[in-house]
Amino acid sequence: MSHNLLKGKRGIIFGALNEKSIAWKVAEKAVEEGAIITLTNTPVAVRMGDVNILGEKLGAEIIPADATNVEDLEMVFTKSMEILGGKIDFVLHSIGMSPNVRKKRTYDDLDYDMLNKTLDISAISFHKMIQAAKKLNAISEYGSILALSYVAAQRTFYGYNDMADAKSLLESIARSFGYIYGRESHVRINTISQSPTMTTAGEGVKGMDKLFDFANRMSPLGNASADECADYCIVMFSDLTKKVTMQNLYHDGGFSSMGMSLRAMAAYEKGLEEYMDENGKIIYG
Ligand SMILES: NC(=O)c1ccc[n+]([C@@H]2O[C@H](COP(=O)([O-])OP(=O)(O)OC[C@H]3O[C@@H](n4cnc5c(N)ncnc54)[C@H](O)[C@@H]3O)[C@@H](O)[C@H]2O)c1
Predict the structure, then answer these.
(1) Which of 97, 145, 210, 219 to mutate to test the pocket of ligand 1 (most atoms within 8 A of CB)?
(2) How does pLDDT run across 70-92, given as a tens digit for each residue?
């Protein structure tokens, strides 16, 4: 059901790869709520993924671009303003990738070229995006810029690896740039810290199925789905949240405020045999 929350607004959605992508759901809901949008992803993702299907369905133009490349980002903003007919009201950064995770390099054996890539793709691209937009004066007054984060920015999670460092940096960029862009043009910058979600990026996290189950058991409201995340993004793009900026907003069913729940404890009681070596010693990950 549409509430016309984004009627007349223009947006850019980075990171829709396939139907599972959080960005995919956000794009669908943004259009449902009355916005016109452009979609962007890397040239290879545009070729290999399903974003063309989404573009056709929503009548949205697709602009291939690498979010680590400043010229590409300038082109995305310039083209989007041309296509959509004016300044941009909202931007979603829904981008994450760690070559160290992909290559199964553990946190105490990181490849530093790969770490640089993780940080560039998953965090610095957010800075590059905002800086490019600001230099082009591409965002309208009280425009809203959002990125997606994870609670591993604050707490340590087994297997999340160098993505935790990337998310900490991402959230810091939202605060640092939020001050400058807010002061100068009333542009809002926030991050939404989302529950574990079964997407292509999510499924790449070590032990994701167990993490997903644990988070679900710990959260009084259960894990938040990609669709529910999209709802929150729409509210953050709308005029209903004009004075919210520089925040990391948890969208996790209550997980981040929990210590232990009965449901999680019940699963723990089932035993740790699976995690013991032949001498009965627990293998700590
Ligand atoms: N899935 C989860 O459990 C979860 C939880 C919290 C936060 N997030 C965050 O949500 C965001 C979206 O991820 P998702 O779960 O929807 O997975 P996804 O795999 O569908 O999306 C990740 C996107 O990043 C894009 N990307 C990678 N490198 C890029 C580059 N150089 N330039 C432009 N785009 C690039 C990919 O093509 C892909 O579309 C990420 O920031 C992720 O860390 C995911």
Answers:
(1) 97
(2) 999 999 999 999 999 999 999 99
